[in-house]
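Retro notes (design track)

What went well: tokenization of the new backbones is finally stable.
What didn't: we kept losing track of which sequence belonged to which structure.
Fix going forward: every design gets posted as structure first, then sequence, in one message. First example under the new rule, 519 residues:
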């Protein structure tokens, strides 16, 4: 049986999936984070410079506008104070008269005009302090930071007020600086940059995952297609997928499984054929076995058969002739199994057809040999031992066609056995001339109590548990020891001896023993 099995655990080429994913992701993230770090550094520097510049510009703009309003308010306040002082001095120094009343009225109008303008300027102040917010102090309280809202849109900003503290003498005038809260914009800018870089990292990670995934999904899809092909019954198909180490191991495992399935299927088919062959051979062997031993006045006939597990073509038979003769036939077939069984069946058919006639025994065997040599393939043969008892005669005629074991003649008078083994070659070896020139016949006269026994090669080839053969000499000795018993008891004793010798060992081939005894 051919074997295509492979070892899926053998070293496979390629990098493992986990190592490949780790390497690709590490390289990709290293590149992305290097670029992101450079962009963050450049962007943070730019944002810092921009925020600083905008803060200074906005502080100058807001502070300048505030100082301009403060200066105008101080001027108007001074003028109001001056007009009020003039009015008071006129009222105190001069009695009321028409001329001074008009002057005072004009002064009051001038005062009211400046008061209105001051109120308008106060209303146009661009910032206001946010109540409830913490006021921070720096430099031991000389600098304070007030949270304020600037303009109608109420943008957040800070008022930085500098007040120099002195132990004695006049206090330096306060200096106010309005600074916009630009940190929010800076934070928004940096947040947007971080979000953008995060999205880029996610995108790169997704691309790496897709790349690695494609290196796995492609071979996996190919393996799935291979499995579908195998599932159709094509057990000669091998996987084509190649990729990462894990995929290679999976592919090799599937190839191993397919090879095992192919071997199992081949074994199943062989077993099925073997089972059918054994069943058919068993039927043929059963049909070859004679139904029962014949009966004749003055003689006992009997047969012993022990079947072997392995089928073969060996057989034995009792053949009756029209004139009342009875023949005992034992044959060995060279082949085993179904071929041997078929050859045995063919040989039995030819032998029964020819030997059941009342004709010349030699010519009958000549004809059988020609038919068998023509029908069986070269190297196959059938050996035969045939004993014919003609009606009314106590002389047995014996023919041997290459049979290994001779006929055993037990003499009741002497208690001894002698071997009768006429010359001859097996049926099927030669188409005619050699077989016919070598075939001889022998005759054996039987006295009362004498026994003739023939065997196939099975009894002598029987082995015990130590592997030793039973052998021909021990077989002949058993015939001598039990030959005087009735045929049925004689065969029972031989069966017991053979079974006891073999023990648990089954016979290698069928055992056939045929015997006849003159009573």
């Amino acid at each position: 049986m051919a074997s295509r099995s492979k070892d899926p655990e053998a070293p496979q080429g390629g990098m493992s999936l986990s190592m490949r994913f780790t390497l690709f992701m590490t390289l990709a993230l290293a590149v992305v984070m290097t670029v992101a770090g450079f962009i963050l550094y450049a962007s943070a520097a730019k944002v810092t410079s921009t925020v600083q510049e905008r803060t200074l510009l906005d502080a100058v703009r807001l502070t300048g506008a505030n100082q301009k309003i403060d200066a105008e308010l101080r001027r108007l306040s001074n003028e109001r104070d001056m007009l009020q002082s003039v009015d008071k001095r006129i009222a105190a120094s001069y009695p009321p008269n028409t001329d001074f009343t008009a002057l005072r009225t004009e002064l009051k109008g001038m005062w009211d005009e400046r008061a209105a303008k001051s109120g308008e300027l106060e209303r146009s102040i661009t910032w206001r302090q946010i109540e409830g917010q913490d006021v921070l102090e720096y430099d031991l309280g000389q600098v304070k930071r007030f949270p304020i809202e600037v303009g109608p849109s109420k943008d957040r900003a800070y008022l930085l007020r500098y007040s120099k503290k002195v132990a004695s003498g006049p206090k330096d005038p306060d200096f106010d600086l309005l600074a916009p809260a630009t940190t929010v914009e800076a934070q928004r800018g940096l947040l947007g940059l971080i979000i953008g870089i995060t999205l880029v990292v996610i995108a790169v990670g997704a691309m790496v995952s897709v790349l690695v995934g494609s290196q796995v999904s492609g071979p996996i899809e190919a393996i799935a297609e291979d499995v579908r092909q195998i599932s159709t019954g094509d057990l000669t198909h091998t996987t084509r997928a190649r990729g990462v180490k894990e995929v290679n191991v999976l592919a090799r495992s599937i190839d191993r499984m397919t090879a095992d399935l192919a071997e199992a299927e081949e074994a199943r088919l062989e077993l099925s054929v073997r089972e059918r062959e054994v069943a058919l051979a068993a039927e043929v062997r059963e049909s070859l076995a004679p139904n029962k031993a014949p009966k004749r006045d003055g003689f006992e006939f009997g047969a012993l058969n022990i079947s072997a597990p392995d089928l073969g073509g060996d057989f034995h038979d009792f053949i009756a002739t029209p004139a009342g003769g009875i023949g005992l036939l034992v044959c060995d077939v060279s082949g085993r199994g179904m071929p041997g069984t078929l050859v045995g069946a063919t040989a039995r058919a030819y032998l029964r057809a020819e030997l059941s006639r009342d004709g010349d025994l030699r010519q009958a065997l000549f004809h059988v040999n020609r038919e068998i040599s023509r029908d069986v393939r070269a190297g196959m043969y059938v050996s035969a031992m045939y004993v014919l008892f003609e009606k009314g005669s106590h002389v047995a005629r014996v023919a041997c066609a290459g049979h290994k074991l001779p006929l055993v003649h037990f003499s009741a008078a002497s208690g001894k056995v002698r071997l009768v083994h006429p010359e001859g070659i097996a049926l099927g070896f030669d188409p005619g001339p050699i077989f016919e020139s070598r075939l001889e016949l022998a005759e054996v006269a039987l006295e009362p109590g004498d026994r003739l026994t023939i065997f196939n090669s099975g009894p002598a080839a029987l082995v015990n548990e130590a592997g030793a053969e039973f052998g021909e000499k021990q077989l002949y000795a058993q015939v001598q020891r039990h030959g005087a018993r009735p045929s049925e008891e004689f065969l029972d004793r031989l069966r017991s001896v053979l079974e006891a010798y073999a023990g648990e060992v089954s016979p290698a081939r069928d055992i056939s023993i045929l015997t006849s005894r003159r009573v």
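Added context from the reviewer: The chain has a mean pLDDT of 81.
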